[in-house]
Give the backbone structure.
Amino acid sequence: MNVWNFARSPASVLLMIEYGRGRKIAPPALLKGSQLTVKQLADPDFTVLATQELVVASNLLKLTGHEADLGLKVGLSYHLSAYGLLGYGLLSSATGMDAMALARRYLALTFTYVTIAFRRAGQHDVVTFEPSPELPEELRRFFVGRAMGATCRVARDVTGSDFELAAFDFSYGAEAGGKNHVLGARVRHNQRANAITFVHAQLERPLPQANAVTAAMCERMCNELLARRRTRLDIVSFLNEYLTAHSFDRPPQLKDIAALLNTSERTLKRRLQEEGACFRDISNAVRQARAQALIDEGRLPLKEIAQELGFSDLSSFSQAYKRWTGAAPSLAR
């Protein structure tokens, strides 16, 4: 599963906003730079891009002063209702094993940015968590911790309050003020993998709210929802829309777009190459189209059009326009 291929429910961003309120952080401060508003997030049909959620998470880290084990604490605050249809499906599954299988099939309907693997180890089950390599380094611990905390919380909500861990392992070092125990297990740091371990028998028990009809209905609806949300984050379309809607005091820079998307310039360049595109060509095409529209409109003098498009002077704009069209902008007007 590629987390970048799916639009997401606003529930996860709302949970971060709620956590921020507990730290006296105003929602607009958390949403800064994400192009999201509280009003949008209140719409149940609204969807959030993965990159927008990354911006909010980055803001939360900074505004809390990089609070120790922040991701883990946020994940442990999750509840089943945050997962919508999937949450009801988990609750109505026959056993914990069935719920686990359902969660793995529809992982894209959760808010994870990590790869989650499940294996048996004798009488125990081990779930490991590996961050996406495309995540910025400073956010990897946050999202790993959040996924681990959310998994623990969901497992207890689904199977019962007596669900406990045998081990909780972090590959990261300990932080002052971090969590010491999670669901009865001591948090061990500097381990080989990020993993939670628990007795397998805990997942074999019948669930108290099991309902085969409800479970089947929820799975069918989850499948339909997944199909609607499956949407490759088309970088070319995003760049065209973004560059068209913004004015620039200098030529658009790839590094600025990478910062907006909370990713590296190298990653963004690679994703453009995968789509057979080049940032310079996209930028030039957008600026040419805007230049032509402004020239045809006839409202602004050529010098102001040049400034609007990020050119340092009229001469630079004229030379670029000649390269694009073969004629001087004065002749086009």
Observations:
- The chain has two domains: 3-229, 235-332.
